[in-house]
Amino acid sequence: MNVRPLRADEIDRLIDDLWLPFAREMADLDAYNELAEDVRADARSYRQAQLSDESTVTFVAAVDDELAGYVRVTADQSPPVFARGPEATIGEVYVAPSHRGASLATALLDRAESWAEDRGCEFATLSVNERNETAQAVYDAREYSVRRYKMDKRLCSRVD
């Protein structure tokens, strides 16, 4: 296994083999994450834009020629009203079902955290669905702790 930055020529594979399955799993956990129609084109332009953003990187875990997992991480300054230093936000972590249990998530998180530390980040933050107990166990084992709860409220009763 090799954990390395995503290359431009791999964006379509990332979307088809990893991101769409990830997004569908998240939608299955919570309707809040339901995908828009024809999402692939938007996903592609989003990933392409990230390749030129020095504060964001997507690392992939490659097993032979297969993309088996990925993590996206962004480094940013904390608001100036806080004493803490810069922080990294881990936005997505996903390992293909056929590769789960082989420590790929650990390798991906190691790489993301190392990248963040190299940029002076003091903290790494992430969000996880309350029903995703497998991911929570991975993060607990890595000493992530709950600092706050995110709560949502629908503001209109109309469903499109």
From TrEMBL:
Keywords per UniProt: Acyltransferase, Transferase
GO molecular function, one term: acyltransferase activity, transferring groups other than amino-acyl groups
Record's keyword annotation contains Plastid: no
Listed CDD domains: NAT_SF
Taxonomic classification: Archaea, Methanobacteriati, Methanobacteriota, Stenosarchaea group, Halobacteria
Record organism: Halovivax ruber (strain DSM 18193 / JCM 13892 / XH-70)
Name used for this protein in its record: Acetyltransferase
Gene3D superfamilies: 3.40.630.30
Positions of the N-acetyltransferase domain: 1-160
The UniProt record lists the keyword Ribosomal protein: no
Highest taxon of the lineage: Archaea
Pfam families: Acetyltransf_1
Membrane-spanning intervals of the chain: none
